[in-house]
C-alpha cells in the first residue's frame, strides 16, 4: 500500500511539473508575441504550484513575470511593479545560483531606477516635493545601495510638510548607519573654468588625458549623520511637537555634543516654551562653540532683543560688528535696541502730562536716547544707501531732534527711490 501511495505522489508531482512547463511555455510564447496581458494571465496557473517547482522553472517564471509587467518599457505606470518584479528575479538568481537572466535583469532594473531618479530630480527642481519624495523612495526601494536617495526622499517630504514621513525616513537612515560620506571626483573644465563632476576616477582621468579638464581632485564629502539628527528634530518642531523635538535633540547631542545647530535649535524650543533661563543658557552654549561667528552673535542679539534683554542684545550686536565691521543689519539693530530704552520714558511722560517740569526733563532724556541711537542708523545707511526702512527711521529721528536740514535731505533720498 505504501509503495502505491509513493507511486501516486510521484505521478502527481510529474503531472504538476508537466503542467507548469506547459503553462510557462504558453506564457513565454505570449511574451514573445508581445501579448503581455495574456502572459500575465497564463502565469496565474503556475503560481499555486510554484513552491514545489525546481529552480529552473522558478527562474523562468520570475523572468516571464518581470518581462510581461515591464512590456515595452514605455508605460510609467508599469515601472514600479516591473522594478519590483525584476528585483525579485535578481534576488532569486543570486540566492539559487541561477544566472541565465541576471545580466539582463540588472540592466533593465538599472534603467527603471534611472527613470525614477531623473523624474524625482525634475520634480524636486519644479518644487513638486510630494511627487519627488515618492520617486526618490522608489529609487531606494529598488536599489538599496542608493541610500542617498532615501535622504532625498526625506528632505522632499520635509519640504512638502509631510513631517511624519520625513521623520520615518530620517530615522531609517540612522538605523542603517547611513553617513552620506562619499568619494567625489571633479576637475575644472577647459571651456568655462568651472568644476565638472565625474562618476568615477577613470572618467575624470580620461578628461585630463584629453586635456578637456585640469586640476583633478578626489575628496570625501562630510558626514550627514549630524544633519539627519537635526532634521528629525526640525521635523518635530515643524509639527509643533516641542517635546518630541527636545527628545530628538537630546539623542542627537549624545553623538554631536558640540553641534551648533542642535544647540541653537534646542534654545529656540525653550524660547517657544517660555523657558527664558534655558533659552539664554543655550545661547551662551552656542557662543562657546562659535566664538568668532558674527552671524551667531547677530542671531543671539535678535533673540535676546525679542525677549526684552536690551543690554544683552546690544552687547551681542556690538560683538557682531567687531567681528564684521560692515555688518549693516547689526548696526541697525543696535540702533533699534537703543530706541527700546525710550519705552519706559514715554510711559512716564504719559503719566506726567500736567507736570510740565518733569515732562520736559523726561523729554530731554528721551532726546538723549535718540542722539545715542542716531549714529548707528547713519552707519547702516552708509553701508546700505538705498534701504527704505533706514531712510524712514532717520527722517523721523531728524525731525524729533529738530535737525531739519538733515531731515529734508534724507526725505529727498527716500522720495528718489
- Gap from first CA to last CA: 107 Å
User: Any idea what the radius of gyration is?
Assistant: 34 Å
CATH class of the domain at 294-417: Mainly Alpha
And the CATH topology of the domain at 294-417?
Answer: Serine Threonine Protein Phosphatase 5, Tetratricopeptide repeat
Describe it.
With 417 residues, the chain is mainly alpha-helical. 73% of the residues lie in helices and 5% in strands. Among the domains are: 183-220; 231-291, Tetratricopeptide repeat domain (Serine Threonine Protein Phosphatase 5, Tetratricopeptide repeat, Alpha Horseshoe), CATH 1.25.40.10; 294-417, Tetratricopeptide repeat domain (Serine Threonine Protein Phosphatase 5, Tetratricopeptide repeat), CATH 1.25.40. The protein has helices at 2-32, 36-43, 55-70, 79-96, 102-125, 129-142, 148-159, 163-175, 201-209, 225-239, 242-255, 260-272, 276-289, 294-306, 310-323, 328-339, 342-351, 356-383, 388-400, 404-416, and strands at residues 183-189, 195-198, 213-220. Strands 2-1-3 form a three-stranded antiparallel beta sheet, covered by helices on one side. Helix 5 (102-125) runs antiparallel to helix 6 (129-142), helix 7 packs antiparallel against helix 8 (163-175) and helix 8 (163-175) runs antiparallel to helix 10 (225-239).
